Amino acid sequence: MAVAIKDMSGANRPHELTLSPLVALLLLVNGGVVVRAIRENGQRLARRRTVPRGLLHVGLWLYAAACALLLITATSTAIEMFLAR
Questions:
Q1: Which of 9, 71, 73, 5 is nearest to 34 (CA)?
Q2: Chain mean position to CA 44
């Protein structure tokens, strides 16, 4: 996420990513890790419900949503860059 945010802040327009192919690839890998973390935490949460585990689960879902939005932006910009060539 840090690479995407840094790249967005340095672009001419806020919605453009200059490193969009790299950012999209990194966010895809990150998405796989987040999905696994959500599954693992969900299994632990099902075994024993505690407030910290519940908050962690909600936080993981919020992080996954933010990453998904950045992935959509990076992917659309990468496709636009490849079609413009």
A1: 71
A2: 23
The amino acid that residue 35 corresponds to is: V
> Which residues are CB-contacts of 77 (< 8 A; sequence separation ≥ 6)?
15, 16, 17, 20
Q: 3-class secondary structure for the chain?
A: CHHHHHHHHCCCCCCCCCCHHHHHHHHHHHHHHHHHHHHHHHHHHHHCCCHHHHHHHHHHHHHHHHHHHHHHHHHHHHHHHHHHC
Neighbours of 70 (CB within 10 A): 22
Query: Tens digit of pLDDT per residue, the chain (85 long)?
Result: 677 666 666 655 545 556 677 777 888 888 889 999 999 999 988 898 899 989 999 999 999 998 888 888 878 877 877 777 6
